[in-house]
Design goal:
The chain is mainly beta. Among the domains are: 1-157 and 171-177, no CATH class; 354-547, no CATH class. It has no helices and 52 strands. The strands form five sheets. The chain has an eleven-stranded parallel β-barrel.
């Protein structure tokens, strides 16, 4: 258990009472007078603070406390016989309100509580100074509204420098936001440390840490989505960034949209999940999402769940960058999951980049299904430009740098030239290397090719064709290329009549399977053959010409 240190600032005011289980509680403030009427609200208001047991319902802090350091400590007390300790050394606080309707809104320097806090509302809402320097508590929200909080939402107007919670953050929202009328707010959270879990609840936004920007987040156990939208979530909104995220347990989606998620509206730095990322049963549940994302490391699986729904559900157990995704390393497997209630499930167990996908390394297997395939995709540069550069060679439109699978890949689709919705957009997109240590079963590897089937997710047919080149490219000097494919085991289809799978591009430069190098002809658009040990031979290797 992490123990919060007591404040070393000499208090200007002290208030003492006995809490509900017998602890002697001391509230100290470096400014103001805690004994002023209306500042401290106890559950048994008509009884003396010492000698009777009380719940600390609220602290209402006005102008006299501006910039104060508030510390609330608890120590077990001896019973009347002087032989047995009473209390647990922790005090539970309902709310701290420095923006009460009858008070002047103020900023605070620090708040330290040896116990649970239900809610804090703080900040003058003027200028760009943070509402609070530091918040250090044992836990948040464990007792819900029973200790005196008026809601599950905590607000830091214009931000907070650091939040430290020794144990769980349970079904409360920690939100840094700007006050109305502030022209240039700095509604950011500098850093967050949670020694336990971040747990979503049954009300929207509970179990959520959200700000216009967050420096770093460490959750030592799991982030768990709830049954309402935006629960169990770490989010930077309003074009905000997140520096880095560390989750010591799992990232687990819930039963509502945007649950069990890490999201940044612009840049998301490195993300480490020591156990698994697990999808939920709703859209964007159990995922890592941002405009541009750095390195993602998952110590377990990227795992979709099995559920029943009549709805269309997309993006569960997913990693998605609207633009660039630097790298993904998954120690376990990618497992798509399934939906059995008549609805549809897409992009469950997906790794996608709206522009460039860097290195993807999966030490385990890829385990998709015939109806719910694992998608690994990068779009490339469909407008024909990276900055001011129009691609002119077959190395200037990279969609996927490399994909490496340590085991067997089943029902996997590696796609270059496809956007985040699965639409074919870029006929010049390229893949670097694809390496599968085991077998490649019922899977597709596609660069710049679109399906001619009525179902656009089925490849390998004779009517497949190259996607149109980007509009800015006027000559076909850029080839949709796969630089190399290495499969350690067998390549096989599904073994079902009528099935078709494709390994297709404009130019496949190198191809090895089972230790043998396939005799590809030099250049683009001139190879085509079928693979597979069954009579169907339904894996079609093809280079396509013309655009």
């Amino acid at each position: 258990m992490i123990e919060i240190l007591e404040s070393r600032i000499a208090p200007a005011s002290v208030f003492v009472f006995t809490d509900v289980d017998g602890d002697h509680v001391t509230i100290s403030s470096s400014k103001g007078d805690l004994n002023t009427a209306g500042v401290v609200t106890l559950g048994n208001a008509t009884q003396a603070a010492v000698g009777f047991r009380h719940q600390l319902m609220s602290l209402q802090l006005g102008a006299a406390f501006s910039g104060a350091s508030i510390t609330i400590t608890a120590k077990p007390s001896l019973d009347l016989g002087g032989t047995q300790l009473q209390g647990d050394g922790f005090v539970n606080v309902g709310e701290i309100n420095a923006r009460a309707m009858n008070q002047t809104p103020i900023d605070l320097k620090s708040v330290t509580i040896h116990g649970d806090l239900g809610q804090i509302i703080v900040g003058s809402g003027t200028g760009t100074a943070p509402a609070l320097g530091s918040l250090d508590v044992q836990s948040m929200g464990i007792f819900g509204l029973t200790t005196g909080a008026t809601s599950a939402n905590s607000y830091f107007m214009n931000g907070v420098k650091s939040i430290t919670v020794a144990q769980d953050v349970d079904a409360v929202q920690l939100r840094a936001e700007a006050d109305t009328g502030v022209a240039h707010p700095d509604a950011k959270i500098g850093s967050v440390f949670v020694g336990g879990n971040l747990i979503g609840g049954a009300a929207t936004g509970t179990g959520e840490i959200v700000a216009d920007g967050i420096g770093s987040v460490k959750i030592m156990q799991s982030v768990i989505g709830g049954s309402a939208t935006d629960t169990g979530r770490i989010a930077a909104s309003n074009k905000g960034t997140i520096g880095s995220v560390y989750i010591g347990g799992s990232l687990i989606g819930g039963s509502a949209q945007a649950t069990g998620a890490v999201y940044a509206s612009t840049t998301l730095g490195s993300v480490t999940v020591k156990q698994s990322v697990v999808g939920g049963s709703a859209i964007t549940s159990g995922g890592i999402d941002g405009e541009s994302i750095g390195s993602v490391a998952i110590g377990g699986d990227l795992r979709g769940t099995t559920f029943s729904s009549a709805n269309s559900v997309d993006h569960t157990a997913f990693i998605r960058a609207q633009k660039d995704l630097k790298s993904v390393t998954i120690v376990g497997s990618i497992i798509s999951g399934s939906e059995s209630g008549g609805g549809t499930l897409t992009f469950s167990g997906a790794v996608q980049a709206g522009l460039t996908l860097g290195t993807v390394k999966v030490l385990g297997n890829i385990e998709g299904t015939a109806t719910d395939k694992v998608v690994i995709s990068g779009q490339g540069f469909p407008t024909g430009a990276t900055g001011d550069t129009i691609p002119t060679t077959h190395t200037q439109d990279p969609a996927i740098t490399s994909v490496s699978i340590g085991g067997t890949a089943t029902y996997m689709q590696v796609e270059a030239g496809y956007d985040l919705t699965g639409m074919a957009t870029d006929g010049d997109s390229q893949i670097g290397s694809v390496t599968i240590a085991g077998d490649l079963i019922a899977s597709d590897i596609i660069a710049g090719v679109k399906s001619g089937n009525a179902d656009p997710t089925i490849f390998g047919g004779a009517t497949d064709s190259l996607i149109a080149r980007p509009a800015a490219v006027t000559t076909d000097g850029v080839y949709a290329t796969i630089a190399s494919i290495v499969v350690g085991g067998q390549i096989e289809g599904a073994g079902v009549s009528g099935d078709s799978f494709g390994i297709e591009a404009q130019w496949i430069k190198s191809f090895k399977t089972g230790g043998l190098k396939l005799p590809l002809m030099a250049g683009a658009g001139n190879d085509g053959f079928a693979l597979g040990i069954t009579t169907n031979r339904d894996v079609h290797v093809r280079e396509l010409g013309g655009k």
